[in-house]
Task: inverse folding
């Protein structure tokens, strides 16, 4: 079954700790994306990657970092520099930048 | 800059037709997407428009007018399961590359 997986579904962390969210896809898609969604709001783009070993900042990249060492994987690290990290994080992929995006189930991160 | 507007909430009756509007302002328009998102879940792709006109897919249709910066999603024969948020998203090219901008979403409630 092809798809995008994100783990874990729920994640709790203490303030000041870095945390890494996993995103894996077996759709053979070149492009991958990370979004953040806050309650009652739309999605905001954090980072995206068109190909392996390359990624670009989105609108709200500050306090986040990514890597793209393999085509299938695009992990997101939420650093302690992110002032308001509690949110719903969604990973997506597409065939290329022109294609529609397929989303993973999301990770709900709570930082206290 | 980029800006996308959608109504915050709409209510309709089962079996009826509803039109959800989206207006946008971008510098380098390169396509408009509609997604459906049920509460607490990931968005799922509904439709894509890059040229002016109507795209029909079963009970769902989407219209685009690039000169007016306007799109709508039309849902026919509404069912209770159509209660969800509907997100309008624009793919935009600027000096820094590509960016995806999502609107705030329209929460649709379908009543019996």
Result:
């Amino acid at each position: 079954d092809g798809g995008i997986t994100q783990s874990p579904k729920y994640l709790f962390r203490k303030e000041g700790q870095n945390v890494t969210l996993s995103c894996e896809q077996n759709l053979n898609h070149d492009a991958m994306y990370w979004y953040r969604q806050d309650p009652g709001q739309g999605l905001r783009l954090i980072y995206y990657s068109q190909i392996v070993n390359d990624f670009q900042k989105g609108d709200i990249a500050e306090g986040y970092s990514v890597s793209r060492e393999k085509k299938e994987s695009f992990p997101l690290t939420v650093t302690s520099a992110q002032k308001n990290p509690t949110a719903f994080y969604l990973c997506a992929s597409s065939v290329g930048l022109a294609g529609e995006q397929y989303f993973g189930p999301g990770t709900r991160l709570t930082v206290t | 800059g980029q800006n996308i507007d959608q109504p915050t909430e709409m209510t309709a009756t089962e079996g009826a037709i509803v039109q959800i509007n989206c207006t946008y302002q971008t510098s380098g328009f390169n396509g408009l997407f509609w997604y459906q998102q049920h509460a607490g879940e990931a968005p799922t792709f509904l439709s894509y428009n890059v040229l002016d006109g109507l795209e029909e897919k079963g009970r769902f249709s989407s219209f685009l007018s690039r000169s007016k910066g306007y799109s709508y999603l039309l849902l026919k024969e509404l069912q209770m399961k159509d209660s969800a948020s509907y997100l309008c998203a624009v793919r935009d090219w600027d000096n820094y590359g590509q960016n995806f901008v999502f609107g705030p979403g329209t929460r649709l409630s379908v009543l019996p």
Notes: The mean pLDDT of chain B is 92. The CA atoms of residues 33 and 48 of chain B lie 5 Å apart.
